[in-house]
């Protein structure tokens, strides 16, 4: 059986095969990877308990598949070319052999600091090669990495470090983002100091200033790595051993640590990278996501390297020094595959076509979109201005929890339609549920998007609390995994993702829980209660409106707004800042006291069909809030 899907016919054949005999199908795909020991059984699962396990008793190390295989076959092939934030800084390159050597040195460095298999290591770094190298170094020795996006606040980092019981933190002294130089070390130091389990900190000298640190437990990243051998045997892992934890926001409580394991995650990310993007040997893949999010994990750190791909890694922002930076990088590095988020496309589109014109983008073959629904206008701009109407667009729908792409067209093989993600990939069985929790069997459907059977990279648990995993994902619809999204399906079986059904916001492709934002707002001394609600925003996709009830009339709303923004930056990170502040005397509530966010959403969207509000505890506030909102416009 072929690993690559080469035609639409093959896609349908493979789809049917995986449907009828998933274990046989995935065993065939898994045989394209290197294992130290094969499996006794491909799959065991019980969705009623929120459990799925793949490649039972198989042994492997994912870095052998990402690095050693290619370092042996094509040692001089370029693995990574890194471009710094500033175009003046020379780029840095690693061939597969060089990347393997450096990963081994860092892995030995981690060992020299007492890190052993199963230990959790948090990584809080900008987009520099050392971030990728640290991730792979952990995987090399069986340590569990938990990358925390560099835009999170020290408090958010500390929470994640504490929950993961991290033994080590890897960071850098500064981070460069556009014009800004961010003192990431101060944030890291604060988090480190309040994390009881953390015993070591490795600091990469990004500024090149050669700083020294008085703390005994702080070490310079390069000094530790340079002293080590370039040989580090890969720790042989069980397929179900943890590979990483990645924290993500949900509708309630603190962020959940999504757990992915070694075997299934490798098979699924490797397979989907090759097929969705139709990556071929000499292609150059450029994913603009940060490794702090799942896209960077699955399709930069793992999926691409599993396929021996050459990648461009970029440290900075799309608009620095100006809005042509991406296009200039594509021209310079002859990029063939470009994978970005709709929010970046909309932001660049808004700045004008002149930035994208005049660059040689003729090497591009495939364009990808991820993270949020792509609106038709942005889709067409991407297609015309970037792809020059000759590059298929893959609109890839998936989640931190699914580990890999679930619904997408296959580049050049299935036809893409603007704003429609397309068909489920091979091995993926989706279901759409109606309001009564029943599956809608007719092709045309609109409802809650669920997964019927597991895929190899579906989350295994939420770290430290399996009940949370079971209750969040596997209880709303018995024997199904619930995605949290609403979707439509057309007569041909294509899917269009409408957005979240739960209290999760998607601001510029970043997932934020309304509860997390409200927790911060409620800590302000003047605020009694609050509700954070998302509304459509032309660039961000969704923006946050905060409805707040103050103890006493607010005298200076601008001051309150600034204070709330400061608190959000401090507690979560600037990417969670609110866009609109609405001061109200009450929030619409059910008689049992639940805030009716649905009504607030309708008010923000200027859709006055609020439904029956007479059963509310306080129907009179609805009109008052609507007036407040319209006076803001
Ligand atoms: O609502 C969906 C949206 O992003 C959510 C997952 O967010 P996260 O775990 O941070 O992963 C983002 C990168 C995979 C989903 O529940 N989403 C993701 N991709 C798309 C999307 N919505 C529409 N279209 C997409 N292509």
Task: Give a description of the structure.
The strands form nine sheets. Strands 5-4-17-16-18-19-20 form a seven-stranded mixed β-sheet, sandwiched between helices. A five-stranded parallel β-sheet has the order 7-6-8-11-12, sandwiched between helices. The longest helix is centred in the N-terminal third of the chain and has 17 residues, at 96-112. The chain has 633 residues and is α/β, with parallel strands linked by helices. Helix 12 links the parallel strand 18 and strand 19 (366-370). The protein is built from 18 helices and 30 strands. The mean pLDDT is 96. Bound molecules: adenosine-5'-monophosphate-propyl ester. Residues 248, 293-295, 369-373, 395-400, 421, 483-485, 497, 499-500, 506, 511 line the site of adenosine-5'-monophosphate-propyl ester.
- The overall strand count is 30
Structural class, by secondary structure, is alpha/beta
Strand fraction band?
Answer: 15-25%
Major sheet: order of its strands?
5-4-17-16-18-19-20
- Mean pLDDT score: 96
Please give the alpha-carbon distance between the first and last residues: 59 Å
Biggest sheet features: 7 strands, mixed
Question: What labels would you give this structure?
Answer:
7-stranded mixed β-sheet; 5-stranded parallel β-sheet; binds adenosine-5'-monophosphate-propyl ester; 18 helices; 30 strands; single chain; alpha/beta; 633 residues
């Amino acid at each position: 059986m072929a690993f690559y899907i080469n035609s639409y016919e093959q896609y349908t054949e493979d789809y049917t095969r995986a449907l009828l005999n998933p274990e046989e199908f995935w065993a065939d795909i898994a045989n394209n990877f290197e294992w130290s020991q094969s499996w006794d059984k491909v799959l065991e699962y019980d969705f009623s308990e929120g459990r799925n396990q793949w490649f039972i008793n198989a042994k492997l190390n994912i870095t052998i598949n990402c690095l050693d295989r290619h370092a042996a076959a094509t040692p001089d092939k370029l693995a990574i070319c890194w471009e710094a934030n500033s175009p003046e800084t020379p780029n840095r390159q690693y061939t597969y052999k060089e990347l393997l050597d450096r990963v081994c040195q860092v892995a030995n460095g981690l060992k020299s600091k007492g890190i052993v298999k199963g230990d959790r290591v948090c990584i809080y770094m900008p987009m520099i090669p050392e971030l990728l190298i640290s991730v792979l170094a952990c995987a090399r020795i069986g340590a569990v990495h938990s990358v925390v996006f560099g835009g999170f606040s020290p408090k958010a980092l500390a929470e994640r470090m504490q929950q993961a019981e991290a033994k080590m933190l890897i960071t850098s002294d500064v981070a460069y983002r556009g014009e800004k130089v961010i003192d990431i070390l101060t944030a890291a130091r604060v988090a480190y100091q309040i994390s009881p389990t953390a015993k070591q900190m490795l600091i990469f000298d990004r500024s090149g200033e050669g700083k020294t640190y008085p703390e005994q437990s702080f070490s310079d990243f390069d000094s530790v790595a340079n002293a080590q051998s370039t040989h580090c045997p890969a720790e042989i892992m069980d397929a179900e051993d943890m590979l990483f934890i990645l924290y993500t926001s949900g509708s309630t409580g603190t962020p959940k640590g999504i757990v992915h394991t070694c075997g299934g995650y490798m098979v699924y990310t490797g397979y989907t990278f090759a097929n969705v993007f139709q990556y071929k040997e000499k292609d150059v893949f450029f994913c603009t996501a940060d490794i702090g999010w799942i896209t960077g994990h699955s399709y930069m750190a793992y999926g691409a390297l599993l396929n021996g791909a050459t990648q461009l890694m970029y440290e900075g922002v799309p608009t620095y020094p100006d809005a042509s930076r991406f296009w200039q990088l594509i021209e310079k590095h002859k990029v063939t595959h470009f994978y970005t988020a709709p929010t970046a496309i909309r932001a660049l589109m808004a700045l004008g076509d002149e930035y994208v014109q005049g660059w040689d983008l003729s090497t591009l073959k495939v364009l990808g979109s991820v993270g949020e629904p792509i609106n038709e206008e942005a889709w067409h701009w991407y297609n015309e201005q970037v792809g020059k109407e000759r590059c298929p667009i893959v609109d890839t729908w998936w989640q931190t929890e699914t580990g890999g792409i679930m619904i997408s067209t296959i580049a050049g093989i299935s036809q893409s339609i603007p704003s429609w993600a397309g068909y489920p990939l091979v091995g993926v069985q989706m279901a759409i549920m109606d309001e009564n929790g029943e599956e809608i069997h007719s092709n045309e459907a609109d409802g809650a998007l669920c997964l019927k059977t597991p895929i190899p990279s579906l989350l295994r648990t939420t770290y430290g609390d399996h009940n949370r995993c079971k209750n969040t994902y596997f209880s709303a619809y018995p024997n199904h995994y619930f995605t949290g999204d609403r979707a439509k399906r057309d007569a041909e079986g294509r899917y269009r993702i409408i957005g979240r059904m739960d209290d999760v916001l998607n601001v510029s492709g970043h997932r934020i829980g309304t509860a997390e934002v409200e927790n911060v707002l409620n800590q302000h001394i003047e605020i009694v209660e609050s509700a954070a609600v998302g509304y459509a925003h032309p660039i961000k996709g969704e923006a946050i409106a905060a409805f707040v009830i103050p103890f006493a009339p607010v005298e200076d709303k601008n001051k309150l707004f600034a204070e709330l923004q400061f608190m959000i930056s401090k507690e979560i990170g600037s990417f969670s800042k609110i866009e609109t502040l609405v001061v109200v005397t009450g929030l619409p509530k059910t008689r049992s006291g639940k805030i009716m966010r649905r009504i607030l959403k309708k008010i923000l969207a200027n859709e006055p069909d609020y439904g029956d509000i007479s059963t509310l505890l306080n129907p009179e506030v609805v009109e008052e809030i609507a007036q407040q909102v319209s006076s803001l416009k």
